[in-house]
Amino acid sequence: MTQSRTALGLIETIGVPALIAAADAAAKTADVRVMTFEKADAGLITVYIVGDVASVRAAVEAGGEEARRVGKLVGTHVIPRPDLSVSAMLESIWRKEAPAEPKPSAEPAADEAVADEAAGLSGTEGGDAASAEALAKLSLQQLRELARNTPGFPLNASGINTAAKAELIRLLTEKKD
Description:
Number of helices: 8
Mean pLDDT: 79
Distance between the termini: 44 Å
Shape: elongated
Strand content: 15-25%
Helix content: 40-55%
Order of helices and strands: EHEEHEHHHHHH
């Protein structure tokens, strides 16, 4: 959290309607920022709010009342000036960092041979058609891995993770030209 965002507010509800009403009321009550929400089991959802201490207190109070009116409020809490380690943990949640890439195993998987064949087809006779054909045989996960390992690939990690199979095949065949 930045210097101007010195407090953390949490509103926990059961169900989405109560959460949305709480977040809306909180955002309209004071100069705060609704950062994200997090789902837990059994319909429990927590929304995170940041701002200065007084604003967060007012926003959480208003959001809690609105959640109670619309649905079920589980609880509210305000943490003034959270410790830097808490702030760092929350920043990583808010940035929605991609999980760390799994380390490859010592022995190659059978699927890697297909990926290697697809990656090497650009130099063969038949070019794009053969390459697209080979890429189409790969799973979506394999295509995403191939895209991540292709230098200068036009999509970032988030784009690769959400791209459809046809789009990845198109971009990979274009990249090989």
